[in-house]
Structures are given as C-alpha cells and as structure tokens.
Amino acid sequence: MKRYRFWTGLAVLLVWSLLAAGCAQGGTRLQPDRAAAAGQPAETAAPTAAGSAPAAPAETPPPRIVSTTVAITQIMDALGLDLVGIPKSVKTLPARYDGVTKVGNPMSPDMELVKSLKPTDVLSVTTLQYDLEPVFEQAGIKATFLDLTSLADMQQAIVELGAKYDRAEQAATLSDSFNATLSRLQAETAGKEKPTVLILLGVPGSYLVATEHSYIGDLVRLLGGVNVVQGESVEYLASNTEYLQQANPDVILRAAHGMPDEVVKMFDEEFKKNDIWKHFKAVQNGRVYDLEEELFGTTGNLAANEALVSLAAKLYP
What we know:
Radius of gyration: 25 Å
Number of domains: 2
CATH topology of the largest domain: Rossmann fold
C-alpha cells in the first residue's frame, strides 16, 4: 500500500472545499464570624434597609450559542438548547431555529456576523479546525471544535455538551440509543462472514477513498466490515483503481456529497466508461451501493441509528 499512498493536503482540501461544520449575586451574606459578632445566624442576610427584604440573587444569563454545522445544530435541538446563530444550508434545519440568524457556510462562517451576535460559545467540528481555527482567532472569537469523526467520538461530544449545558439526561438518552442499536445489529450479524469493503467518497468532479478513520469507515468497522485500505492514519486517500482492483472488495459503498445527484451520475459514468471496474467482484455480484447523504455524512450525526441499520443490510444481505 505504501507505493499507492497518494494522500496529501490537496486531497483533504478537495473534500472540505467542496462539501458544501461569573455570575454576580445580589444581596450580601455575612461571613460566619462576622455574623456571630453581629448577633445574627451565620446564614441570615443582613437587611438592605429597615424592614426591607434582601435583594434577590441575579439570574445567570442563558448561554448565547452559535452552531456552525448542520450536525451540531441537530444535536443541540435534540438536547433542547436554543441557539443565537445557525449555519446556512440547503438542508432542513430543526423548526426550533426558525428565524434564527444564519451565519454562513460551515466552512466559511461570516466572522463579523458571528461577533455581532455576542456569543458565549461558538461550535464547529474538528474536521474543519485546521482551516477555521486561525480565522476565528484572528477575529477574536473563541471557538470549540467537536470531534464527530467516529460514533464513539460523537457520543463523547454529546455527553460533554450535556454536562456543560445542564442536559446530562437528554445526552445520556441519545448516547444510549446508539449503543442499543449497535449492540442489536452486532448480535444479529455475529458469526457471519465479514465482508471486505471499499468506500468511495464522491464530490462533484472527483472521488476519494475513505479509510476506517472516516465516519462511514468507522460504521463499517463497528459492524464487522473489513476496509480494503489498512495501515493509514488519515480519513481519505486519492484513488488508485489498479490497486483497489487487486484488493477486490466484496462490497463497494459510494457516498455522494456536495451535489449528490450530480455525484451519483458521475459515479455511474465512471463505472460504465472505466473498463477496470467490471473486473471488481463487487460489480460482478451486484454489490455496489449508493449511500443516502442524509444518513451518511462526512461527520457523525443524529441519523447514526438509521445509518447503522441501512449499512448492516448492505453488508449482510
């Protein structure tokens, strides 16, 4: 595989350029020693004026959260959290956020608009961190990048969000639902022959090979599939059809992103015109599957349960 490692910063750039991520208390409490000296119980607040009640503590203002990706926006909705900023997307966002300010594309948020919202928290994803972190820093905006590159990482991110925003119960429910689905599917497929799998990520005009470090690759791994690309540390590699044909996978999964209809047509044209594909076992056996973009994103999302069920049916027909 060493001679066919074509991953470069250009491959990553291709994917991400085209996929188109102290409370102040009112009133005064006497310290125990001072209270005793004053002849008052330690926990009794001194009156602010004769006959008047102590001032009520000031309420902590709610967080002002900006979500810059669709997946994070869906997670925040599931946790029951309001947002002051959401991404601009052709996808339908939760109704909770109708009328909320759109801050731009996940890969290039409008920094001035984000700043104008006076956010306490700005959320993006680690797959965009390399490009976006310096931009946020230059704008003086502190951003948090959530790791959604695998199911386990997404679950951890959800749990951490739940702890931070007092939504621990909702977060645990979400995480447990993924564990339940995965455990059921693993039990149903236990003992079956593990298929070898090639995952292609298509964007308009080109496609890459997804490793087990990609989100879709992680789902395949969890269900027992064996990625034909092994020994890599990156999420995506440039394609080399001659090497891939030698690997001869049992299953080929085609994920279309950016403009899915256009990418599916591109895949169909490639498989029809490039003679090498007809030599693939998966093609000969009719085991080439186009994945639904809503279920199989480039990062983890709340459709994970449906994605696992759909994927299991393709790996173990």
